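hiii, so i know i said id send this last week but things got crazy w the move. better late than never?? heres the sequnce for the chain we talked about at the cafe, plus the structure i predicted for it. fair warning i was half asleep when i ran it
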Amino acid sequence: MSDNYDVIVIGGGPGGYNCAIRCGQLGLKVLCVESRGTLGGTCLNVGCIPSKALLHSTEMLETAQNDFIDMGLVGDISFDLKKMMSAKEKTVNGLTSGIEFLFKKNNVMHKNGTGKIIDACTVEIDGEPHITKNIVIATGSSVAQLPNVEIDEKNIVSSTGALNLDKVPNKLVVIGGGVIGLELGSVWRRLGSEVTVIEYLDHIMPGMDSEIQKQSLRIFKKQKMKFELSRKVVSVNKINNGLEVQTEASSGGNSKAINADVVLVCIGRKPNTDNLGLDAINLEKDERGYVITDNFKTNIPNIYAVGDCTKGPMLAHKAEDEGVAVAEIIVGKAGHVNYDVIPGVVYTSPEIASVGKTEQELTNANIPFKRGKFSFAANSRARANHQTTGFVKILAHAETDQILGAHIIGSHAGDLIAEVALAMEFKASSEDVARTCHAHPTITEAVRQAAMDVEGWAMQS
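okay and structure toks below
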């Protein structure tokens, strides 16, 4: 029998490793078990980080190819895919080893292996029992499968395979118009692929503000990305020199075949809650396999769950906040996550970011609101940078002026959204942001001008 622990965290992704580190900071004896060979989970190994490395490299390539000449910069530029992939792996390896360092720094013990819950105080790791006072399930999620479409990670790939293609496909079909599909579709389009996105709904990026959806679609089309909306994939068949994607209208009928060299399946993700022993201990899950929680607690005392294996947005930063909250709850602190202020970002070019409520959600809830909007075309720094596409939109309560949401499409949107998220966390009004001095000339001034526009006094447009 191994040493006793205060906490065993199952899963070394953003929810798990941050929970373990916070537990260590709070003086708890903690063990983190991870079945993958390296720490960081899907996000660091085959998700957020490698995709952003490729997005950055290819965005720089496209900027050089398309925009440099207008800035007076001349000279041909090409790319070496093998070196690009190597640079991506270097980034990933550096960050995974960084987590190992943070574990040592914060007295977190770590084991590679598969964890299985035997009872409320026992976790078996590859057959060896470990005793603990608390268990945190942070096992993340995996790629959802499409019926009749078998992913081989060579020709029919998930996001994992799409990050490791050894050559640029002539034709890439992306099944799913959500965040992952649009980001990875953008990577390969910039490298020369003809990209077609097939989406079951009549719009892309489900859940985003409708104005952002429409504007983004126009931009992606201008970038030569093709879209087949309101269509579903029936099958993907191998033909002589590639693949044939059979589709029909979402409502049925109107068949259409689309040829491809590579098909990327991005229809969502499913929680990793199988093979954990949850059924044997009667831990409650819903019909889709998500662990049911109440303030992170399961139906079994001292067993908690965070991140993608529970309901809610599948975002690394949401999982991180939940992991920290659980660690603090375990030691008697008031661990808390404000789900009204969790930003979401699409790292395409331009970036797309959102926090809080959309106009549609406010309308449906009969909440009176005002909107302020400011175009990057009127922002001096954006014009100097040749980055004038998009806008900032801020939504505030019509009576109290409290900021209820913000939606940005444009350069650095993922960074800009943090200012509004912080304002919302402090329940700031649009006037608070409007009357806060912003440095000039900066992209951030667009946020201030949008806040001014809520009351109709934007001064730069």
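btw Residues 81-105 form the longest helix (25 residues). thought thatd interest u
miss u guys!!
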